[in-house]
Amino acid sequence: MHELSETTIRKSFVNCSKGEAKRLNLPTLREVKWEDQIFLSWLDHKSPLKGCLVVEHEGEVQAVLLQKAKAQSKAAQMCQFCMTLHPGSGISMYTAARPGESGRRGNTIGTYLCANLACTDYVLGKKKPVGIRQMEETLTLEEKIERTKSNALGFIARLKGES
After folding, report:
1. What is the mean pLDDT of the chain?
2. 53 and 66 in contact (C-beta within 8 Å)?
3. Mind listing the pLDDT tens digit for each residue in 122-133?
4. Strand boundaries in the chain, DSSP class E
5. Which residues, at least 6 apart from 78, have a Cβ–Cβ distance to it below 8 Å?
6. Residue 57 pLDDT
7. pTM
8. Cβ(85)–Cβ(134) under 8 Å?
9. Contact between residue 114 and residue 103 where contact means Cβ atoms under 8 Å apart
10. Cα–Cα–Cα angle for 130, 77, 113, nearest 5°?
11. 10, 49, 62, 67: least buried by Cβ within 10 Å?
12. DSSP assignment, residue 126?
């Protein structure tokens, strides 16, 4: 992923107002290892039920504001972006308001994701879920990276009604 500025990130949100995007708490961008990112994702340190996803594809940057569900499953589940298995506490349902009038009326879509939004770290092997064995895969690391990015882009496309 290329290095992104705060301005670029804030302007790229597809499902919140400019004012809401301006008020979001971003991570410290100078500390991000951009070359190691499949996409940028984080939980808001001041509002831990808010998360953000920023995906860059073919020069276009798209960002989504996510809302984390309070309740968590007890059963093991799989992240729908990175396909990492987690114990129930490691997965959360995230919803995103649809863009425009539809979202203002309360329409959302949701998916199960790594509770800490650290998909990149799981795919690259920097983190491993505690207490659960992962499935054996025959994909190369590059294929896993592409699958993860494709899944995130697919979520954004569904959110925008493009698929």
Report:
1. 94
2. yes
3. 999 999 998 888
4. 40-44, 47-57, 60-68, 77-78, 85-86, 91-97, 108-114
5. 84, 85, 86, 91, 112
6. 93
7. 0.93
8. yes
9. no
10. 90
11. 49
12. S
